[in-house]
Automatic annotation (TrEMBL):
Keywords, alphabetical: Signal
Range of residues in the leader sequence: 1-22
Any one Pfam family match given in the protein's UniProt record, by short name: Pollen_Ole_e_1
Organism taxonomic ancestry: Eukaryota, Viridiplantae, Streptophyta, Embryophyta, Tracheophyta
Any one Gene Ontology cellular component term annotated for this protein: cell periphery
Organism: Triticum aestivum
Keyword Signal part of the UniProt annotation: yes
Keyword check for Signal: yes
Name the record gives this protein: Uncharacterized protein
Length: 182
């Protein structure tokens, strides 16, 4: 018998059953979405690359022709809310010159200005290659390279995992062949 009802009657019945008006709008307010859970704790990871600068670009910030420096050591230092050293790690670069420093879970508020990216920096420490062990300040490797957001973050276990990166750092050769003929 319901199959014989005119289409308008069926639509009115559906509208009445769902609480929508004839124009498709809901008569009852929709629930507001709950705000996303804000993690107050963070597990910080800092990554980067260490290179040996080519003699062609020695004493500049250019890394064209630079080669990865396996075994290079850097230090990653983070400051607390009072701008004191909070934690530090000394990662060693792998065979591709890549390093990763991992920190324990901490409150975001414990970091300087409540932001690990502002609280932490990376410095060159040591090179295993005696032919390429002079420090450079490329990307502030001597002064302290700032961290940048990489968009790598995920939540789990009651804290947020965040990966920051330092721009590429570099040692330079202590001696290079002369560029001109004498």
């Amino acid at each position: 018998m319901a199959a014989c009802l005119p289409l308008a009657v069926v639509l009115v019945a559906l509208v009445a059953a769902t609480g929508a008006s004839a124009h498709g709008y809901s008569q009852t307010p929709s629930p507001t979405p709950a705000p996303a859970a804000k993690c107050d704790k963070v597990m910080l990871k800092v990554e980067g690359m260490v290179y040996c600068q080519s003699c062609t670009h020695r004493n500049s910030w250019c890394l064209d022709g630079a080669t990865p420096l396996p075994g290079a050591k850097v230090t990653v230092t983070c400051r607390d809310a009072k701008n004191r050293v909070m934690e530090s790690r000394t990662p060693v670069a792998d065979g591709n010159g890549y390093f990763l420093a991992e920190f324990d879970v901490a409150e975001k508020a414990d970091y300087y200005k409540g932001d690990p990216a502002k609280a932490c920096f990376v410095r060159l420490l040591a090179s295993p290659d005696r032919k390429c062990d002079d420090l450079t300040n490329v990307n502030y490797g001597i002064e302290g390279a700032p961290l940048r957001h990489e968009g790598k973050r995920w939540s789990g276990k009651g804290y947020e995992n965040v990966v920051y990166a330092a721009r590429p750092l570099s040692f330079k050769p202590d001696t290079c062949a002369p560029r001109g003929h004498y």
